[in-house]
Amino acid sequence: MLKTVDLRAPVFLVPGRKLHEGIVKQRRDYPALPGGLDEIVANLSARRDGVPVTFTPWKGSDAGFSVQLTTYAYVVRLGLSGRGDAYFVNWVAPLRLRDHDELAKGCLLVRAVWRPVLDIRQVPQGADAGWNGMFRAWQQLQTELGNATGAPQLNAQHARFLDTLDRLNDAVHRLEHENADQLPTYPYSTVEPVGERRYSAAGMYRFHVVGGVTPEPNAFVQVRGEVEQRGHVTRVTDGKVTVRFDRPVDWARLAQQGELTPTMTDVAYAKRRDAIALLRARQARNSSLLDVLVDHRVQPIDQVNAEPGEELDRGQLAAFSKSLGVRDLVIVLGPPGTGKTRTITQIARAHALGAGPGRLLVASHTNRAVDNVLAKLPRDVMVVRVGNESKIDPDARQFLLERFAADLRGQVIATTADAVGRYAGVPHARDWHAELERRIAKLDEAFATEEGWRAEWIARRRIVGVPAQEKAERLAARLAELERTAAGARSKAERLSQRLARARRRLPVLAFLTDAVTRRRQRRLATANARLLALGEEASTTKQALDQAEAEVDLATRDVPAVRDARARLDGAVRESAERRKEAIAAATAIAAALGPVLPVPPVDSAAEPGAMRQALGTLHAQLGPHLQLLTARRAVLADWHEDVRGATEQLHPELIRYADVVGATCIGAASRAEIADEEFDLTIVDEAGQIATADVLVPLVRARRAVLVGDHRQLPPIVELEVLALLGEAAHDPAVQALLQRSTLENLVGALPASHVEMLTQQRRMPKVIADFVSDTFYDGKLRTMVTRVHDDDVFASPLAFVDLSDLPEAKRRERSTGQGRENVAEARLLSRLATHYHVRGKEWALIVPYAAQRRLVVSILQEHIPDQDVVQSGVGTVDSFQGGERDVILYGFTRSNSAAQVGFLDELRRANVAFTRAKQQLVLVGDLEMLLRARDTGFRELMRKLHEHLLADGDLRRSAEIWHGIGELA
Amino acid sequence: MSAGKDLMPYRKERALEDTAFGHGFTPARLFPLLLPVWQVDVRATTVDGKPYELIDRYLERGIAECGLGAVAELAAFFALDEVLVDRAVRFLTGIGHLTGTPDGRLALTELGRDSHRDQVRYVVERQDRRKLYFDGYTSRPLTRRHYDAGVVTFLTLAEARAADGFRLLATTKGFRRETLTELSGYRDREHYNLPHRLDRPESLSEECVFLPVYVIRAVRPGGGIRCLTYGQAADTADPELSELCEQAPEIQAALAHENTSEEEQRTRITNWLERKGLTGHRPVRFPHGGWQVVLPSSAFQPSGPPLPRASLGSFAALSTTVVRIWCEDKELREQALLDRVESFVKARRRSAEEVAALGAKVGRQLGSGTIDLPALRAMAVTAGRDALVSSLDSLN
């Protein structure tokens, strides 16, 4: 910071006592130092912009400060004279970087006339060193600097928030790296190319893995030692692992034997870090994001005139309007079955079709959640999905950028190839057009020659002086006059005829007004027709007379040599004209044929009278000129287009993104995919935001001007690795850290933001009322209302809410067991599998949900023996996390836990139960050791089971396992 | 001076290697500095020219050259979906290229016609606000590479003061406002990140911010001092910033005066060696001010302590003191050379030219002279580095 001080009076500088000695000593090492006071003054004066001046506390002066002046090469220290009329130059030192450092922090820029004097006594009376003015300015500068420093870029809370996020992100990243070292590797003996369907140039190969251990589908792997050969597993069958690489992989560079190793990508870490950095730099597109997230300050919501394309209930409509009118961030809470996807699609549609000024980004933590929304968007919305081909839901794959571009390219190439073919005749037509012009010119010449010889022939006949000649000429003149008159009369009759036809089409109501006119016109038409008839008769008579006269003249003159000669020449000219006409017609026909596929060209009547034909040819030629110009341009553009589109598919990507109304991507994908990395959005809708921790949700939030978080904080929260908490040590207990790590942004904001910015959907249309009422009471403070009627139709259970109690089994049978890979419960797995088979056979859409991965594996292994379609088994059985957002007719849920200590482990996260129970559209069957569950150690869980038990007794169907086995029987 | 690694995206040694083996100068000192820069908030009417993409170019050609004037006509002609064409037309209308005629047809505006004529997609931004950066001494615009916000950070004074290990450079020159009007005369507009046209620019505010740089004081082969300057944007010397640092007298003087005593520098180096467990090695000072220490082969390991093999032939920057690390063992130096080449080709796909350039540079660095690809391959064969040989064989 600079502060300029202009000193009007000259400033007198007097050499201090030790100045000369000091200079001499220092100049040995620093030759750039001045030789004496005169040089100092010269160097100070050379700084036209002013001399940088700072003040330093100094006891050696009465003023308590010394003054430093800086030239381009050295620093001069001054002390104020006792009278305040001059400065002693006490010391000179070379300019160093630390001096720069001090000056950069703030200095005065003093403009003055510097005067050297050898002795203090030579300073004129009344001189003023300008100390007071400079010192005041210096103090003022210090105050301003203090204020500036005290006003940091971010307020302390915002900075703390971002610091915590950075710390968490680093911890997660560190942990991922540590874990990666302990992962197994997969040696392979051979590798082969595969023919899987793909839409990009990314490489895909199948590895024959040896040793029996294979990576899981969707795992990220790389060829050992080859960081570029990185991708993810798309398929695992019989030890053969298909890997889709992130980029093209040259077969020749792929080691034929080697090792696949699990890989981890730093992308998520980097993108979270970038998002935090953007917020820190105040460059986030959503400029008030920190105000919302940290201070919970929001801006009012604007009124928007937009209508949904489908009927929405009251809550959905409110969410719709708020989402379109929000300026910063709004939350839509969507408990199960309340139609949040429907609401999102309507927001997206309205935004796309005009309510929003830019593009919309639909993001979520999982690909499934993103695709779920995209697949339901209407056709008139242009959607582009950015992501990994193999992870995208089949319903949304049509929107995948690579596929969209490939399909578009294919469609354009195929269609324009035909179109280019249709324009192939245009150059030919242009050639013929020029030829037509030449032929018309020749035809004109032939016409002129013909007319010349005709005139000559007539003239020579006249010379012969046959009496009939005069008669013939008179008759010819009369005939011409008659034809002219007839032509006029004919057009008049046509006009009258048209008027009459028009009058007949008018409304009958006007008939009385027009009758008189019509009758008059009819009379006039009749007169005109009669006149035409008369003219025709006279012309016919005249023609006969003329022919007769001509015959007489001909007879009298044809043997006259001069006439005979002229006649012969005339006949030749007539033949020539006919020939030229034929040629011109041929040219016109060729043009019509060449342009046929792109422009209909009217034919020229070859039987027409020569003059009329000539006129038609001329008109055609003139009209075709501009048409041909346009067609030539179109042909060239189309050919270029066809050629350019054949280039790389990727060239279409930027525009498809640019023109898209809606872009879908996962949170991290929203920043990591190069195609959209630099794009900005007007609005982002983050779905299933209840599952997304702050560091992740920031990635899409910083990209869009405003945001809608949609989700349900009463369902699954973000997943946190316990090791991360361990890594954080003490900090993990900090409530601020926990809020950012273990809770979603959505959860943090519900209750913190004003009610105007949080809209809850409350009308559910998925579950039968008995299930929904239990869920509503237990998880949603009784706010959920059921707006659907489900007719109960089940041959095993009497109520849509059923519980099969395993506590009738002996302890040894019903207890869980701990395997190396987690917890499993055999009795429960058998019963669940039996029920799944039961519903499968009856064609029900079912899902079997268990909390533990080991239990899932056990259930899958039992079911695989009874349900041949492995895809059905794999997709039908899952842990809670994999079913969030989904729904099925029948949901079978097993608690797995059964132990004497009544420990329920992570079932104490009650939201897990909420997710599992609320997937059912018709029937929910819970299976577990009810006796133990009711006395669970965890208070929250015990309370949940108590309420469930009450509901079961009141409206549900509580059964013992033996009854069910008896009812549906063992499997064959 | 450890904080440097946070502000700069690469290590000091990389810059020193560029000075020594990219430019052939001998580095003497390295100064982490914060260069004053004017960050000017400029308001102007700008016309930026960007290359057309594919669809926008052809839609405008269709309108300009083919007499097409409706979304449906364009869609049919180019075999595109009408929704796509509609959005593209909306976009082109939005940027002022298209307009509707009274008879409801689409037509190019003057801007659209200019764009079509020059085949450059011009975009007019009225009341455009953008931050432009000018050096703090001459008010010359910074080049485009400094506008990459992902890499380059401009520090406020408060942040600069808190930047550990970096010294601030001071300027007393205010921002020359005439510079803004002079910008329209710049021909190499891309280079300076300037829009195609900049009309009536006005400065709304000017703030002095600081750009982190390494300034390396080095000696040219024929004598003479150079000050190569390395910004955050790249680990190669920035020509404009180097010129600035070499010509601003106040910078020149300050750098010339930063002469830590020989003894102090020697102590700094020997302390560093001792911390690495390398005692009894005496650094030697070159007449130009740089240092070198010759270590036995036992001091270098492929990785890990005392010194990684990768440091052989390179430098260590200890505060502002620069010391070159050397070993007389030729075989070890060749191993180090092959290490460098191997890690280079493995990091990502490289072209033969890139590998040859690296081989030449590292060859100079490790005293093997300029090495071409065949020589490199022969060296790898002799050393039994089969993986490297096969990588070299598969280049291009």
Strand content of chain B: 15-25%
Number of domains of chain B: 4
Helix content of chain A: 40-55%
What percent of residues of chain A are in strands? 15-25%
Number of strands of chain B: 13
Give the CA-based shape of chain A.
Answer: flat
Largest sheet of chain B: 5 strands, mixed
| DSSP E strands of chain A, number | 31
Segments of chain A where pLDDT lies below 50 for 5+ residues? none
What do these coordinates show?
- The complex is a heterodimer of chains A (972) and B (396).
- Chain A is α/β, with parallel strands linked by helices and 972 residues long.
- Chain A contains 32 helices and 31 strands.
- In chain A, strand 5 (74-80) and strand 6 form a beta hairpin.
- The model of chain A has no long low-confidence stretch (mean pLDDT 88).
- Chain B is flat.
- Chain B has 4 domains: 4-44 and 126-256, no CATH class; 52-119, Winged helix-like DNA-binding domain superfamily/Winged helix DNA-binding domain (Arc Repressor Mutant, subunit A, Orthogonal Bundle), CATH 1.10.10; 262-326, no CATH class; 330-393.
- In chain B, helix 12 packs antiparallel against helix 13, helix 12 crosses helix 15 (386-393) and helix 14 (373-382) runs antiparallel to helix 15.
- Chain B has helices at residues 4-7, 12-22, 54-66, 71-78, 82-94, 110-118, 157-162, 178-182, 239-247, 249-257, 262-275, 330-347, 352-365, 373-382, 386-393; strands at residues 26-50, 98-100, 106-108, 121-135, 167-168, 197-219, 225-230, 284-285, 291-294, 300-301, 307-308, 315-318, 321-326.
- With 396 residues, chain B is an alpha/beta fold.
- Chain B starts with a helix and ends with a helix.
- In chain B, strands 1, 4, 5, 6 and 7 form a 5-stranded mixed β-sheet that branches. Chain B has a 4-stranded mixed β-sheet with strand order 8-9-13-12.
- In chain B, a hairpin with a 5-residue loop joins strand 8 (284-285) and strand 9 (291-294).
- Chain B contains 15 helices and 13 strands.
- Chains A and B meet through helix 3, helix 11, helix 16 and helix 17 of A and strand 1, helix 3, helix 5, helix 7 and strand 5 of B.
